[in-house]
Amino acid sequence: MGRVYQRVLLKLSGEALMGELNYGIDPIVVEQIAQQLADLIADGVEVAVVVGGGNIFRGVKGAAAGMDRATADYIGMIATVMNAMTLQDSLERMGVQTRVQTAIAMQEVAEPYIRRRAIRHLEKKRVVIFGAGSGNPFFTTDTTAALRAAEINAEVIFKATKVDGIYDSDPHLNPDAKRYNSLTYGHVLTHDLRVMDSTAIALCKDNNIPIIVFDLSVPGNIRRAVLGENVGTIVGGFCEVS
């Protein structure tokens, strides 16, 4: 099967980097993710990554505990940069050129986000990791993923999760839950399926960017998704239940 996508954006949650830990970063998990990205670069795919920070600090929880919401969100943005630098280190130890670009200036450790520079890095087959979210409080890293994907003309967003797609109900609670093979943007918004937040879904709909939701824990799933194999649920098509 030939490669379907040439330029992709991978959305990684901070929790994905924890593995089985209760907090922080599991170096083994980071290395496994980096190896899959290295394989894509070897195949000639242009790869961008947006990483969350929930394994270190989540702004919503900080606000719920009494913190000012904007302050809590800024702390969460800094947490995403820690994750981005960790993934960068793992990739570069594998010989993959990587650039971290942040929406908040941190010139000693990363480049500022500049759209044209990011695209040029991708054209040179460097992995570009976007940190610090969008640089604005009250916006999630899901929305950042949709925004950056539109800005760099990515063909697809890969949303890496702990389940193998989108279900009509929680598969952990309902053994009869049915998995969707594909969904429309409207169905996701209308039924509040919480694949990504509503702002991110609307951005993807407006810019016709498909979202593929799949299980990150299965080795090789990122590459399978890029090759067009059925590894999860596609948002952007029509409604089809498996």
TrEMBL record:
It comes from the Bacteria. Its EC number is 2.7.4.22. SUPFAM superfamilies: Carbamate kinase-like (SSF53633). Pathway: Pyrimidine metabolism; CTP biosynthesis via de novo pathway; UDP from UMP (UMPK route): step 1/1. It catalyses: UMP + ATP = UDP + ADP. Gene3D superfamilies: Acetylglutamate kinase-like (3.40.1160.10). It is found in: Cytoplasm. Residues 7-215 form the Aspartate/glutamate/uridylate kinase domain. UMP binds at residues 53, 73, 134-141. Inhibited by UTP. Homohexamer. Catalyzes the reversible phosphorylation of UMP to UDP. This is Uridylate kinase.
